[in-house]
Design a protein that fits this description.
This protein is of the alpha/beta class. The protein is built from 8 helices and 15 strands. It has one domain: 3-Layer(aba) Sandwich (Rossmann fold), CATH 3.40.50.880. The chain is globular and about 55 Å long.
Length: 289
């Protein structure tokens, strides 16, 4: 079934500080665009006078501390109807009030934090089903996520992994996600935290999926579950495992490094539209890109 709504996956840049030991120095020639500007650009194009945005911070361990930050930032972008749906337990995700609020909303935004926690709290709940129903059934509905909130949206997700000098069998954790889109695996803070090997590992284990590595302040706006438009100041790296030739991914033991031949990579930046299913650019590049 082709969704009528749009999916926005954002590479992060959370406000709770850097992760010690995981960050590279990244130089940027373009002005950063925030996750609020990214969502705002799309929402403002839709034919509605008032836009109700529901924020779900279940992935974060500090949702109360983040609440005023998000509301203030959205108001600066011109949105006045912004509120939080509290999901701190499975009981919250079964709330009739929360489901009713989703039915009235124009957009749902998942914050960063822990993607495993987010999935555990929402999976197989009326709240998640209400969001899916609206995403598939309403043309102007938006589901967006940043950082862990973006990573949790596909069917298959990364829930953890080591950044090591080589790939080893148990260095990554893969799980079921919220299943708003299939056929992709998303990683975020991609350049800043040096996560290309982690995503490569995930794709070697799931070669039918497209790996999408999102740098901070960068997003893909996905329409129809396929057409992905890149916006923001950074890059998106895709890893395609369909042409993998030689790999020991299924036989390597704990002490033998994993090797992968012919994992194909593309680099996407602002202005590019990409087909997830066909694994190619959808329009000719212009001189402005």
């Amino acid at each position: 079934m082709i969704p009528k709504g749009k999916l926005i996956i954002i590479g992060g840049h959370e406000d709770k500080g850097d992760v010690p030991g995981e960050n590279l120095t990244v130089y940027n020639k373009k002005k950063n665009i925030t996750r609020f500007e990214i969502l705002g650009q799309l929402v403002q194009k839709t034919p509605r006078t008032h836009h109700e945005i529901e924020i779900i911070a279940a992935a974060s361990s500090i949702p109360i501390d983040m609440e005023q930050l998000y509301i203030k930032a959205y108001k600066e972008e011109g949105f006045t109807k912004v509120s939080f749906i509290k999901v701190n337990s499975l009981t919250d995700a079964h709330s009739h009030e929360s489901v009713d609020r989703i039915k009235k909303a124009h957009a749902v935004f998942f914050t960063g934090g822990d993607q495993g926690r987010l999935v555990a709290l929402l999976q197989d709940t009326p709240l998640l089903q209400a969001i899916r129903d609206k995403y598939y059934g309403h043309e102007n509905f938006i589901v967006a996520g940043t950082s862990a909130g973006a990573m949790a949206l596909p069917e298959i997700i990364i829930t953890g992994g080591l950044i090591g000098a080589a790939l080893y069998k148990d260095d990554i954790k893969i799980s079921q996600g919220l299943n708003f889109i299939s056929g992709i695996i998303v990683d975020t803070h991609f350049i800043k935290r040096g996560r290309i090997a982690r995503l490569a590992h995930a794709i070697a284990l799931n070669p039918g999926c497209l790996g999408i590595g999102l740098e901070e302040n960068t997003a893909l706006i996905i329409s129809g579950g396929n057409h992905a438009e890149c916006i923001g100041s950074g890059m998106v790296i895709t890893l395609d495992g369909r042409q993998i030739m030689n790999t020991n991914i299924d036989t390597a033991t704990e002490c033998i490094p994993i090797v992968v031949e012919n994992l194909q990579m593309s680099i996407i930046a602002e202005g590019v539209t990409y087909s997830i299913k066909e694994r190619k650019f959808l329009k000719r590049l212009s001189d402005s890109i």
